[in-house]
Structure formats: C-alpha cells, structure tokens
Amino acid sequence: MSVHDVPPELGEALSWRELWRSRGFALRELVPDSVFSSRAADRGLRLGIGQAPLEELDGQGVLQPVAFAAGGNPHEWADVAPFEPRMTFREEEPGREWRAYAWDNHGRPHTSALYSPWQFLYLDNVTDPPAARVGLDVLRAPAEQRDKVLGTWRGLLEAEEARWHALDSAWRPLMKVLVRLQNRYLPEITGQSRMLYDTAQKTLVDPWPEVLSSFDAQAAASELGVSAAQLSKAYWFLVERGLDREPRDGLELLRRARPRSAQKHVQGLPRRAQDLFDAAQVLRLFLRDLTGNPPERNPLWRMDGRQRERAAFYDLGPAAPTTSEQLRAELAHIGLYPHAVHLVGEGGSEKDIVHRLAEGLLGSQLADEIGFTDLGGSGAASRLATMVTGFTTYAQRTVVIVDSEGKMAQYVKGLVGSGKLPEDDILNFTENLEDSNFSLAEMIKVLTDLAASPADGRPAVTLTLPLDDVLAAHEARSRKAGEPPGRAGTLLKLTQDPKYGGPVTVSKPDFARALADQMLADLDAAESDQQATEAVLKNRPLLAFVLDRIVPVVASRYRP
Fold first, then answer.
1. 557 has pLDDT over 70
2. Is 238:276 a contact under the CB 8 Å cutoff?
3. Percent of the chain beyond pLDDT 90?
C-alpha cells in the first residue's frame, strides 16, 4: 500500500453510538449491505454476491459495518432514539459470525449490516489484497536460492497483509469526522437535503436549517478531538488520493462542472475520485469555518504534469460549484469552446480591420478564433442586447464596436446598465470607425499608397487628392445625405474620377485592411519607446481596444 492508502492520524473521541444518538446520519444515512455492494459496482469495485464476502472482510478487519440493525434499517425518521435498542454497533462487539445479529424476518433469519457511504473512500484498497507474482526463473532456481527469494517475499507480504487487515481501523477516525460534519456541509456541496418524518408534528421536515443555525465549528472540533493542522493534512490526503484516481484525459475539471443530478451516473475511477473530492470539500468548508480561511495548498507539491488541475482543486475547492466563467475557460483550454472572442459590429469594416489587426499581432490561425456578427447598420440597435446575450453563452468574451449614430448610444448604455456586458468590452465611437482613428489627411495617404502599390497585381495608379477638394466633395455629399456620411466613402468615390488620376477601384474591405496595416506599421515604428507607443494607442483607439480586450483572450487559446 502507498502513502495515499492510509489517511493521516486523527483523534477518535466520538463513538458510532454517540454519532447515532446525535442524529449524525440524518442527511446521509447508513445503507444496507446489498445497497452498499450495488453502489460499489458503480465504482468498478466488486464485493461478491450476497453477505458472505462482506462477512469475511469484516472478520479480517478490512471492512467492517458501522452497525447491525434488528428489524432492518431505521431510516427517514427525525427522532431515532426509539430505534437505538435495535442497533448493535460493530466497534463495540468482538468478532463473531453475522448470524448472531440475525432477526426474524417473516419466519426467516435475516441480518441487516449497515455501512456509511464514506466507506467507499477506501474500498478500492479493500478489494486489492496484498499479492505477489513470482516468475518461473525463481521457481526453477536451486532450492536454497529459491527459498531465500521466497523468504524475502514472505516477509514483505506479511507486513503488507498486516496493514491491509488494519485498513478499517486506520480509516475509522476520518469516517467519524466526515459523519460528524456531513449534516452541516453536504447540503452546501450537493445542493440537496433530505426530508425526515417528525412524529411529533406528523409531517416531513428538513433538518438542515436547524443544523445550519446551531452548528459551532470550534465545538465540533473539540467533540472530535481534532486540530486544524490534523484536518489540513487529511484534506491534502483526500485531494491527492482523488487526483490519483482521475483518468489523465484532460476532463478532470469538466467532470466537476457537471450538475449534481448527473454525477450519479459517473462510473468507475472518476466516481471514486468524486467521492474523495466531496469528502475533501467537507473538510475544506469546515476548516474555513474553524480558522476563518480555507486551507492552503499542499506543501508537498507534486510535479507530475497535473499542476494545473491540482492548483484548481486547491484554490477553488475540489467539489466547489463551477461558475460559467470557469467553465468557459476550461472548455477553451481543451479546445471545445467555439470562439475566443465574438465581435458584434455595424458593418464589414469592423470585421476586416479587427481581423487584419489580429493577423498582424497573433497570426492568421489565431485570428480565426474571432467570430463576427454584423448588426446591419445603426438601425438595428434594438437587436444589440439580444445578440450579446446569445453570444456570451459560447464565447469567452463578447465585444461590441459601434458608433453613436441613431439610438445606438442609448442601447449601449442600457447594455452596460443591465450588467449584460462590461463597459470595458464596448468601443463606442462618436463618429464612424475610420474617422475616429484617422484624420482625413492620413486616410488620403493610405489610399494613395494603396493605389500606387496594389497587392492584387493590378496596374499601379498615381492618385492626387488635394485636401480642399476632398473636403468640398464631402460637404456636398453630406448636404444630400440624411445622415452625415463617412469621409472614407467620399474618398473611395473620388478615386473613380479621372480628374484625380483615376479611375481606380479600391473596395471598402481593401481600404479597411490597408488602414489596419497602417495601425500596425505605426505600432512597429514606436518599437520600445513607451511615449511613442502611448501616442499611437491614443490616436488609434481601435488598436488599443484590440490589444486590451481581444488579443489577451485569443492568445490564451495557444498552448505550445
């Protein structure tokens, strides 16, 4: 048996009888041997058929019932005092055949052995008795050599067998701690309580509110005879033992995120790990109440390739509820989350510029981690809240880039006020995207450079666009439009005029990407100059937004 097979030493000041009298099993009852064997099978552990194998384990001291109940298991009663004369607690009795505890069940003798579900925590050790495999080379060796090897094996196996026979007594103090604490903390962990029949009130009652109001952590620790230091060691032991039973499939934290109603369907090793994490969580919550703080990480930090999972179990709690943010992060970590970032914008320019910026900053593969939805212009402002609510369910982060035309500003303010999206995840321009990031002179230069060096193999064109002519054309266009048009549209229209060197066709997406390239060039030119970089980000608010709210999330999807 390894270091994780036997828990650290704990005090054992309470007996099973005292725990029974104090209604310690109210919210997690003792279960009959048949149920115990069936639930063991759910964990991939076979105890054999009928009571005979369990009786043998009891006689060996490996797995003993908590009690025997004449007349069957007295459960679902708020007051158990009337049933105590029917209870025989195993630790108070010498070893004997189970038929000594039999009761008359409709004319036939029947024995009702009762176990605590916490005994599943060490059941895999129970079903794995010490054994040795001896090779043929040993058996064929000369008698003297063979006897020497077998003598060594015999000594080792006898020591292992002695520890195996003491398994139940080694775990019993921890079992009693968990039983003493289960009424207080299990409902907090599972979100489930248990209704019991109160004979005085003649109705079903929930005992948890009473336990919650009367529980005193210091008094409980004193009753149990345990210290915070001892409990911390037991907590670390349970977490590490649980990790040992988790398959190395990358889904450890996702299994913890399943609803409690679904966890009962988990089978085999993950189910055994779940039992251990639930027990560890009970101790974690008790230590929180006992000391004012949750327990620290295990000082004996194992470097076994599971440091990330181990850190999550210790820092968040091994069976703590999983928040939607934690779930999204975990799904993204294993590559099951559709988008790192989803961008909601008013048109294609937002998509083209942001994607090009992400390509330049992160590479094309990670840039594809950004999803995009086009609102379809400022007239679709009323759809903003509905869209954002939907996208936040499957994207690690949803960002919005809009201008303040029409009612957009009002809907953006409502989105923030309702808590549906953090204000930091919204970029709200007072003008359109191009005009908010580039002066007219800067846009003219980007456009003339693009015409002079086309990327698609078209002939180069020398455009001459005087600033005064562009301003005059834009004013004339504005007078005809219902809403002020963007200067980029005016520029693209003038490129068709032979008067300015055209015609040359520059699409709006091409121009948007060229503007993104200019932003990246400005950032490169600033290099390590902090003041120059700050000036670039001030003049190019879109670039600053992408660096702050998009790039970190997308980059987190990359694991070398």
1. no
2. yes
3. 46
